[in-house]
Specification:
The chain is of the alpha+beta class and 768 residues long. Helices cover 52% and strands 17% of the residues. It contains 26 helices and 20 strands. Strands 1, 2, 3, 4, 5, 6, 7, 8, 9 and 10 form a ten-stranded mixed sheet that branches. Helix 1 packs across helix 10, helix 10 runs antiparallel to helix 11 and helix 13 runs antiparallel to helix 14. The radius of gyration is 33 Å and the shape is elongated.
C-alpha cells in the first residue's frame, strides 16, 4: 500500500488543476446538497418542529384577575391533565402611537415575565437582552415594521406611566404576546388580566383541548376566563400559508440533489477516463490491477474529502440565513427555522466522498480489465473516429472551420457529453421553473391588493370584550368612508356557523360594502353579491366535498339559510367561508360588524388617515395592514438562491468537460496552431464545442420546466391559481430561456477556452 499511496500523492501533485476542479465541484455540490437536504428537512412539519423547540403552549388562556387572583390561577397548573404550565403572567394592552417603530398605531399586548425561559413557551432572545428593570421592554420581532434601523434603544411613551425603552427583540412561537416587561414594570402599568400557558397530556383535537382547559379551570369563578388561543388554531393559520410554498421548496431541494449528483459523476468519471494512459504506465511498471484501481480511488478521494469537509462547513454557515429567507413567511417566530439537523451534515460528510468513490469505481474497474498497451493507447486521446466523421460532414458546409471543428468535438466522448447535457438540462429546467414560479407568485401576491394602502379598523363587541362604537355600526362605517383619502370601506362580521349534515362547525366571514379588488381573489366563478351566496377557498371546498354551483344549508342560532357556492377563492382557511351581509342578517338579525377594512387612494396620507380614524372613536383599534404576501416573498427569494446555486454547479460541470477535452486534445491544438489557427479561433472552436450542447439542453430543459411549473401550480392544494396566474409565458420570455443553456455552457467554457488560446505550440506538442 505504500507504493499505492506514493503513486496517488504523485498523481495529486502532478494534476493540480484536475485535483482543484474535483475539490471545487465537490465543495459546491456538497454545499448545494446540504442546503437541499436542509430545506427538505425544514419543510417537514416546520410548525411542529418550531413549537416543540420552544415548548409552545397548547392553550394560552387569559383571565380576569378581579375574579380569579394569581394564587388561584397558579393552582390550575396542578390539575389533572395538565402536563406543564407557566404563569400566571400579568397582562395589559398598550396603545401604540402612530409612527412608533414605523407602525401606524394600534394596540400592543404586553406581558410581565421575569425571564424568557421556563417549562412552557420559551422565548428566543434575538437581539439585545431581557427586560429586568423598570422602564425596559422587549419587543416581539413581528411586532414592528421593517423600515429603518433596529429598534433597540427606541422609547415608547406610555400614558400615565414612565416611558419604556426597547432593550431586546425576541420571538415567541406561541404569539402569546407582542412585548414583554419585568413583573415590577407590569405592576406600574396596572394590569387587569393575567395569562396562563398550558401544555396538556391530550391536545390533538379541539375537543380534547376544550375538555382539558375545562378540567384545569373547573375550580375558578364563573366568567374569570376571558379568552383562549390554541396551538391548533396557530397550526391551521400556518398550514394555510406554508402550504402555498412548501411544495415549491421541496421541488427545488430534489433538483439540487439531482444536479449535484450528475455533476460529481461527470467530473470524477471524466478524470479517471482521461487518466487511462497513466493507468497503462502504472501497469507497465508492475502495479497489479487492484493496485491501479486503489491509486485512482485514492487520487479522487483526497480532493473529494477536502471538498466535502469545506462544503459542509460552508453549507452549514449558509443554511441558517438561507433558510431564514426561505421561511420568512412563517407565522411561528424565528426559532428553530434556520436549524439544520445534524444528520444532514453527517450525510454530506460521508455521502459525497462515497458518491465520488462509487463514480470513480465504474471507469476504474473498466481500466482494471485493460492490458497495459491498450490502456496507454486509450488514454492518448479520445477515439476520434466518431467525432471525425461528423467534423468531415460539417467541414463540407459553409460554416467557419473553427465552428465546424467545435460542433464535432462532443461526438468524440458521447458519454461525457450526455452527462454534461443532462446537467445543463436540469439547470435550464430549474431556471425555467424558477422564472414561472416567480411570475405566478408575484401575480398571486398582487391579487386583491389594489393600488392604495389598506387600513384595518377593529371595533368593540362580544368577540374582544370592548365597548361597541359610540355611533353604532352603520354610522361608524359612514364616518370612516367620509374621511379624506378613503376610496372604499368593507365591513366584516365573524360568526361560527354549521353546515347542515356536517359535524364540525365552520367560521363564516360576512362582508358588507365595497372592495374594488375583491374580484382579484376569485379563482373560479364570481364573488358573492346577494343573500344565500358564499365563496370559499380550495381547502374548504375539498374537505367538505363541494364545488362551485353546489348548494349547502347554513345554520346558526336556530335559523337556517340555503346557500349556493358561487365562487372559489384563490386561497382561504380550510375551516372558513365568505358570505354576504344579507346572509348574516338572515341568520342573526341585528348583527354588527366586528371590523372594517378601508381602502385608501394611491398616494393618500396613511398616518393622517389613521389619526383621523382614531379620532372618530377612542375605542377603535386602527392599524395598517401589511400588503406583502409572505408566500410570495419566500418563493421568489428562495427560487432565486437555488437558481444561482444550480446554475453555478452546472457551469462547473461544463468547465470540467472543456478542461478535460483540452487536455486530451493538446497535440491536436498544437497541430492546429502550427498551421495557422489564431487564439481567437481556438476560443471560438472551444466555446462552440459546448454551445451546441447547451442549445440542445435549452431545447429540452425549457419544455421540462414548463411542464414542472404547470404540475406544481396545479397541485398546491391550499391555493387555487386562476389561469391568469398560470399563463405567465410569452414569446420573448421563452426565447430568452432557450438561451439559458447556451449561457450556462459558454460561462463554463470561457476560462479553459482562454487558457487553450494562450497555450504555446511547443507546450501543446509536448507529451506527458
Amino acid at each position: 500500500m505504500s507504493a499505492v499511496w506514493r503513486a496517488s500523492r504523485a498523481a495529486v501533485r502532478r494534476r493540480r488543476l484536475q485535483t482543484f476542479v474535483i475539490g471545487l465541484v465537490v465543495l459546491c455540490s456538497t454545499t448545494t446538497v446540504l442546503l437541499a437536504l436542509g430545506l427538505l428537512d425544514a419543510a417537514s412539519s416546520p410548525f411542529d418542529r418550531a413549537y416543540a423547540a420552544q415548548r409552545g403552549p397548547h392553550t394560552v388562556a387569559t383571565f380576569d384577575t378581579a375574579k380569579a387572583p394569581p394564587e388561584q390561577l397558579a393552582r390550575t397548573a396542578r390539575r389533572p391533565g395538565v402536563e406543564a404550565a407557566a404563569g400566571p403572567f400579568e397582562q395589559t394592552v398598550l396603545d401604540v402611537p402612530a409612527g412608533w417603530l414605523w407602525l401606524a398605531g394600534g394596540s400592543l399586548t404586553v406581558v410581565g415575565r421575569a425571564d424568557p425561559g421556563g417549562p412552557v413557551d420559551r422565548i428566543e432572545l434575538l437581539e439585545g437582552r431581557w427586560a429586568t428593570a423598570p422602564g425596559e421592554i422587549v419587543i416581539g420581532w413581528n411586532s414592528y415594521g421593517s423600515p429603518g434601523p433596529r429598534p433597540l434603544g427606541t422609547r415608547l411613551e406610555v400614558p400615565g406611566s414612565a416611558p419604556l425603552t426597547v432593550v431586546g427583540v425576541a420571538a415567541g412561537v406561541s404569539r402569546s404576546a407582542g412585548a414583554w416587561v419585568s413583573p415590577e414594570q407590569m405592576t406600574a402599568l396596572r394590569p387587569s388580566a393575567a395569562q396562563m400557558l398550558y401544555r396538556f397530556t391530550h391536545s390533538s383535537t379541539d375537543a380534547q383541548l376544550a375538555a382539558a382547559l375545562a378540567g384545569a379551570t373547573a375550580e375558578l369563578p364563573e366568567g374569570s376566563l376571558t379568552g383562549t388561543q390554541t396551538h391548533l388554531a396557530l397550526q391551521q393559520a400556518f398550514s394555510t400559508l406554508a402550504g402555498a410554498y412548501l411544495p415549491f421548496m421541496t421541488l427545488f431541494g430534489v433538483l439540487g440533489l439531482l444536479v449535484s449528483a450528475l455533476i460529481v459523476g461527470n467530473v470524477v468519471s471524466g478524470a479517471v477516463v482521461s487518466g487511462y494512459r497513466h493507468i497503462g504506465v502504472l501497469k507497465a511498471l508492475g502495479f497489479t490491477p487492484n493496485q491501479v484501481v486503489a491509486v485512482y480511488l485514492t487520487m479522487t478521494a483526497v480532493p473529494a474529502v477536502v471538498g466535502a469537509v469545506l462544503g459542509t462547513l460552508l453549507g452549514s454557515a449558509l443554511a441558517e440565513p438561507v433558510l431564514r429567507v426561505a421561511f420568512s413567511g412563517i407565522e411561528t417566530g424565528r426559532a428553530a427555522v434556520g436549524d439544520v439537523g445534524a444528520w444532514v451534515s453527517v450525510v454530506c460528510l460521508l455521502g459525497m466522498p462515497a458518491l465520488v468513490l462509487l463514480t470513480a469505481l465504474v471507469p476504474a474497474l473498466r481500466a482494471h480489465r485493460l492490458p497495459a498497451a491498450r490502456a496507454i493507447s486509450a488514454g492518448g486521446a479520445p477515439r476520434t473516429g466518431r467525432g471525425l466523421r461528423v467534423q468531415r460532414l460539417l467541414g463540407g458546409t459553409r460554416l467557419p472551420r473553427p465552428v465546424s471543428l467545435g460542433l464535432g468535438q462532443p461526438f468524440a466522448r458521447p458519454g461525457r457529453t450526455l452527462m454534461t447535457m443532462a446537467a445543463i438540462v436540469l439547470g435550464v429546467t430549474t431556471v425555467t421553473l424558477a422564472t414561472g414560479l416567480t411570475s405566478t407568485m408575484l401575480a398571486f401576491g398582487e391579487a386583491g391588493r389594489g393600488d392604495g394602502a389598506r387600513i384595518h379598523v377593529e371595533a368593540g363587541g362580544p368577540l374582544n370584550d370592548r365597548p361597541v362604537p359610540v355611533f353604532g355600526d352603520g354610522p361608524t362605517e359612514e364616518r370612516l368612508r367620509s374621511l379624506p383619502g378613503a376610496t372604499g370601506v368593507r365591513a366584516r362580521g365573524l360568526a361560527q356557523v354549521s353546515l347542515v349534515g356536517q359535524v364540525r362547525p365552520v367560521y363564516a366571514n360576512f362582508y358588507r360594502g365595497d372592495d374594488p379588488a375583491a374580484a382579484g381573489r376569485i379563482a373560479r366563478g364570481r364573488e358573492a353579491r346577494a343573500a344565500g351566496e358564499i365563496t370559499a377557498g380550495p381547502a374548504f371546498l375539498t374537505q367538505n366535498g363541494l364545488e362551485v354551483g353546489d348548494r349547502v344549508t347554513l345554520a346558526m342560532n336556530g335559523r337556517q339559510v340555503a346557500a349556493t357556492v358561487v365562487g372559489e377563492l384563490v386561497e382561504g382557511n380550510a375551516r372558513a367561508l365568505d358570505a354576504t351581509w344579507q346572509t348574516f342578517l338572515q341568520l342573526s338579525p341585528g348583527a354588527r360588524a366586528a371590523e372594517y377594512e378601508v381602502r385608501l387612494a394611491a398616494g393618500a396620507d396613511v398616518p393622517a388617515y389613521v389619526e383621523a380614524a382614531e379620532a372618530v372613536d377612542p375605542d377603535l383599534r386602527v392599524s395598517v395592514l401589511d400588503t406583502r404576501n409572505a408566500a410570495t416573498v419566500t418563493v421568489v427569494a428562495f427560487s432565486s438562491v437555488f437558481t444561482v446555486l444550480l446554475s453555478t454547479v452546472a457551469a462547473l460541470g461544463v468547465f470540467n468537460t472543456v478542461l478535460l477535452s483540452i487536455r486530451e486534445r493538446r497535440r491536436d491544438l498544437g497541430m492546429l496552431k502550427s498551421i495557422g489557427m489564431t487564439p481567437r479561433q481556438v476560443v471560438a472552436m472551444t466555446v462552440t464545442s459546448v454551445a451546441g450542447v447547451g442549445a440542445l439542453g435549452g431545447l429540452l430543459g425549457v419544455p421540462l420546466g414548463l411542464i414542472a411549473h404547470r404540475l406544481v401550480v396545479d397541485h398546491v392544494g391550499v391555493v387555487s391559481f386562476p389561469e391568469s396566474m398560470k399563463d405567465v409565458w410569452d414569446a420573448p420570455l421563452v426565447a430568452g430561456l432557450l438561451l439559458a443553456g447556451v449561457a450556462i455552457a459558454v460561462l463554463g467554457a470561457l476560462v479553459p477556452a482562454r487558457s487553450a488560446a494562450r497555450m504555446t505550440i511547443a507546450s501543446a506538442l509536448h507529451t506527458e
